Description:
HIT family, subunit A; 2 helices; alpha+beta; 5-stranded antiparallel β-sheet
Amino acid sequence: xxxxxxxxxxxxxxxxxxxxxxxxxxxxxxxxxxxxxxxxxxxxxxxxxxxxxxxxxxxxxxxxxxxxxxxxxxxxxxxxxxxxxxxxxxxxxxxxxxxxxxxxxxxxxxxxxx
Length: 114
């Protein structure tokens, strides 16, 4: 979608610090990090929310979790812990209408998060 921030990042129209790209996914550092490590993992295909993901996206979503795991290892978060979050909808805090996972770590994370 032309007006989607993350689609523009996928198209390389908006510069960002990309940390990985694989299996229809792009991972980049969040511009407003909420933890020392805050990486966004997005599908390169425009999917507005988790609700819009279908059975056809099962492999993509599995690949997204696998990429989160790989990145957590490369950022040395596995021994201390990390969090993977998907916000879905305005009351859950979704502000960009393109499905994305947040990989957060590098500091103690509280529960409940909101």
